[in-house]
Design goal:
By secondary structure, the chain is of the alpha/beta class. It contains 13 helices and 14 strands.
């Protein structure tokens, strides 16, 4: 391992110093850095999201952040190691319930980072709630997820009720677009976000359309966009469809600005869309690398690349659970620990409201320039 993770000392040392793995039942009175009962030390956290399939990159970026947090924790607790259990959903909601049951049945798993996508969260979170297994999603942004009364649900970033208005504001105030078109991919995430943008843009919207995931021919949509005279197109969905969509639009001569959200913030979008991706605006409630330079340096030392979409949020989500383990919390007591958590992370102040929503929310704009996704600042 190439990184010594020196950055973690000022960021999370105080949290980790709460204690080492506690004894079973949350009693930390006799626990030390290498102490605690074997039962309490032999614990796991889960990573739930797409690690293979068309949206795997988004899950892998999160997983990298989780692994970085685990490395840091396990260095400090060499005789009380925490392991990672991966639940590869491929971003498919139909697989989510079975994976959730698998995690629930493994009594060593005391918390889940994820689910990563909104659709799989909707399918899996009722089961996690019933079992009392805490989930902290670093990336699922559909606002309705927090409205189900799930006591185990926490979200380490802003939801689309924040991102949607920010995207609409950018379209109106920065791009000065007067004829926006809105499109979605009919997914829980994509449609939910696009509907918020539609509402905020109001009567200015000159056209709407819906495509399907795994669709490859967008000729009908291209015709609609061009016929509308749109000077901007907001697309709610993921990168596998966004890339051929904008490529076909550019090939047809459309000159407007393509605006997308966090589901497209991935290098694969640029790799597949090629030069058609240039100028695309991407909104995301995720922090740029320069917001947490020490974390970015440690991430690059370990993985050979800059942190990507939700890597920092994955690190922070895992750190909260690991701090709970350090404080002697088990599955049964982790919910209350997370509910009262209030510490500075690498992305923001980590604190939750009564519904499990992040109490510190920011949305950033990014732009594709010269084949790279670069930050253009926070959308105020």
């Amino acid at each position: 391992m190439r990184s010594t993770l020196k950055f973690a000392v000022p960021i999370v040392a105080a949290a980790l110093a709460l204690g080492a793995c506690g004894t079973k039942g949350g009693d930390t009175s006799s626990a030390g850095a290498s102490g605690g009962s074997q039962a309490a030390c032999d614990l796991k956290i889960g990573m739930f999201g797409a690690l293979t399939g068309p949206n795997a990159n988004l899950g892998i970026y999160i997983q990298n952040g989780v692994n970085l947090a685990l490395d840091d924790y396990n260095k400090k607790h060499p005789n009380c190691q925490v392991k990672l259990e991966n639940y590869d959903s491929q971003g498919d909601p139909t697989q989510a319930p079975g994976l959730a049951k698998k995690a629930i049945d493994d009594k060593k798993v005391v918390g889940i980072v994820g689910p990563a996508f909104s659709g799989e969260s909707k399918a899996a979170d009722p089961l996690f709630n019933e079992a009392g297994l805490v989930t902290i999603t670093p990336s699922a942004t559909n606002p309705k997820l927090a409205d189900n009364g799930w006591k185990t649900f926490f979200r380490a970033l802003g939801n689309d009720a924040t991102q949607g208005p920010a995207a609409a504001k950018y379209i109106k105030d920065t791009l000065k677009a007067t004829k926006p078109f809105v499109m979605d991919d009919a997914s829980e995430y994509g449609k939910g976000l696009a509907d918020i943008v539609r509402q905020d843009l109001g009567s200015a919207v000159v056209g709407n359309d819906t495509i399907q995931q795994k669709q490859t021919d967008f000729s009908a949509s291209v015709t609609k966009v061009k016929a509308s005279g749109a000077d901007a197109l907001f697309y709610g969905g993921y990168s596998p469809e966004a890339a051929p969509l904008i490529k076909q639009l550019r090939d047809a001569g459309w000159k407007g600005t393509f605006v997308v959200a966090d589901g497209v913030k991935d290098q694969s979008f640029i790799d597949n869309a090629k030069t058609a991706a240039e100028g695309t605006i991407i909104t995301c409630p995720c922090v740029p690398a320069d917001v947490a330079p020490e974390f970015a340096a440690a991430y690059k030392a370990k993985f050979g690349q800059d942190p990507n979409t939700y890597s920092g949020e994955g690190y922070d989500s895992a750190t909260i659970l690991l701090d709970g383990i350090a404080a002697g919390k088990t599955r049964a007591t982790m919910v209350d620990f997370v509910k009262s958590y209030d510490k500075k992370g690498v992305t923001k102040q980590l604190k939750f409201d009564a519904k499990g929503e992040s109490a510190d929310i920011k949305v950033y704009a990014y732009k594709v320039e010269n084949g790279k996704i670069v930050s253009v600042g926070e959308i105020k």
